[in-house]
Amino acid sequence: MMNWILExxxxxxxxxxxxxxxxxxxxxxxxxxATEGAPFGKSINDALxxxxxxxxxxxxxxxxxxxxxxxxxxxxxEEIVGILSHIDVVPATEGWTxxxxxxxxxxxxLYARGATDDKGPTMAAYFALKIIKELKLPVSKRxxxxxxxxxxxxxxxxxxxxxxxEMPSVGFTPDAEFPIITAEKGxxxxxxxxxxxxxxxxxxxxxxxxxxxxxRVNMVPxxxxxxxxxAGDVFELKEAYQEFLMTKRLEGxxxxxxxxxxxxxxxxxxxxxxxxxxxxxxxxxxxFLITLPxxxxxxxYVQMINECFVDSIFGEKLDxxxxxxxxxxxxxxxxxxRYERQKEQFVRVNIRYPxxxxxxxxxxxxxxxxxxxxxxxxxxxxxxxxxxxxxxxxVKTLARVYEEQTGLPSRSLAVAGATYARALKNCVxxxxxxxxxxxxxxxxxxxxxxxxxxxxxxxYAQAIYELAK
Length: 469
Description:
Helix content: 25-40%
Strand content: 25-35%
Number of helices: 11
CATH architecture of the largest domain: 3-Layer(aba) Sandwich
CATH class of the largest domain: Alpha Beta
Oligomer: single chain
């Protein structure tokens, strides 16, 4: 009997050295530095090249698909076992205890953006493959660690990869929880914008100059800022805002300048798939803004947010309340808000919906609701829910491996997240978060326990071998 965990433990030091080096690369989408061969920016390309170079130095076969994705391959055979991961990360919000791209180990926990989602698990899967290769274990299939670069935005990476490469016959993605994720909610992402009409002169106390919040649709916005100008009483405005913050027990402040007042509110970041566990700074700030006598454009923007999304995490104000007994309730997260007077009015909405629901119908209903306020959809991405048969050999194999390595019973789980599992016909999400552990993806001070990553290496090594032997 192979002691997979012991093999993983023997790699601890070199694994952590390589992972820390990997995590230092700020692999956030940056289209301003995009070039041919680096479609999502320099840093993401640096991270992809880092992994491919590492694989090549260890004697694996590697391939770069024009910077959209890459794979590290071992073994021979007609079939492919795919391990699908991603090396891009969401932006890091303010308030980290240590810099997000300066990995730090404290009390056995590795803190860094990407530690959990998904660079830590990517490196764990790589070392699992490395164990199989170094032990020269016999396999009858090719094993590919497939690394995407655009998972946190539009999945353009996986679309490109699967249109140019063979489809793996079976696989898993190390981008969720243990024991096994066999069901995922549907994913509807819609960007809305409104054209500016002729700006009329208005007799209003306050003019909304700008409203900014959020960086990614799959994050609950942690900060929101509104710039207000006008002839109103600045002292009364600041006093009213402070009273609002105190009454609601919120963090924020009002800052006066020569020609405007800036209102800032702090919320609580969380993964956009579970908006009820975060606190949207944007939604809270609009609760206050709707009470002000704003200009007509500013008022309508704030009104749209209040009448469609405030107190509507489960779709109450959109007439979308629905749930099933597989993945639970539909949820709504507006991840990005942009308002610049006479320039831009924009929101980006993400809806996670039950397996039985029709994403196209939900999209049409959302379009109708926002059309009342003059907003039109610019971009829509609908990924139907993913549900996998618990009796499938893949699930049974992964369940057995988990039970053998942990001594715990396996069970199938459902999540609100959208993983690469739905990109393949025979694929599920598998780890790395163990039962009872805190999941910190997309949050400030994202971390994962080092011991859990070492255990994951052992589990992934056995799982890969069982699928490929």
